[in-house]
Design brief:
By secondary structure, the protein is α/β, with parallel strands linked by helices. The protein is 37% helix and 12% strand. It has nine helices and seven strands; from the N terminus they run H-H-H-H-E-H-E-H-H-E-E-H-E-E-E-H.
Length: 323
Amino acid sequence: MGCQNDALVQKVFELYEQIASLESLKPCKDVNTLFTQLVVTCMPPNPIDVTKLCKRVQEMRSKLIRLCGEGEGLLESHFSTILGSFEKPLQHLNLFPYYSNYLKLSHLEFSILSQHSSHVPNKVAFVGSGPLPLTSIVLASNHLTKTSFHNFDIDPSANSKAHALVSPHPDLSNRMFFHTTDIINVSTALKEFEVVFLAALVGMDKEEKLKVVDHLGKFMAPGALLMLRSAHGARAFLYPVVDPCELRGFEVLSVFHPTDEVINSVVLARKYPIMAKNSSQLEQQGGLSSPIILPSKCSEIEAFNPLNRGNMIDELTIEEQLS
């Protein structure tokens, strides 16, 4: 595929240059309009493979993802402040313009999780929860109503705003906790969680993302589930892509690419059990056991059927296609 001559790439490049030239990415009419145009451009299903684009476009995409991340963070911070001004903030979540998307995405993630877990988790972690932790709030309110949620974010101001939203709520204030730290600095505590959610913007490029995933693979409990957000097709101009083949130490259970207004793809993986080396190896090493972690299982992923836009769950790519 050509780079500069492709109509989609050309349009994305034009929007990138306009967004990059803005003095600020704080919510305002110009910012909102440009990001909306970008999303509308990248939303339709498209067979483009961003990994095969030329270096110039790859560099633009990397910068654009960071701009999108900055803009998204400022948008969430802005609305978190507005919501925090209400006596009961969680009763006004619909003021956030993309709240309905989070309702759909959270329902999708819960449905995928339910297909691969026989019990409701007692304790989950959300890494990269931000100032407006809508996924945690929606899951805790609508789907996992007895589960405790531990939200991790590196930004203390984000956690402060997020805590202000849930602290007035009699139930969620007792089940949602906020930790200000880089997840790379969390080790043994990760073993407590049956499910770990990883936000799309934790790890803004491939190397950063895999560093976080490898850390989770090292310290999560064997058999625990990892729910990641990725991107597919032209949507990869908006968010980093997680290649299921590179989830070392995890068995990929499900990969799903929505084609509606839910932008993020969803990947569910299970951490492999740690296998002890066989007796002959142990004898050679003087009886010292050094655990090994099996590599990830990987396969081709089927594209989502755009004709079935009304029912996202029926078209899940599940483990039968990965065996």
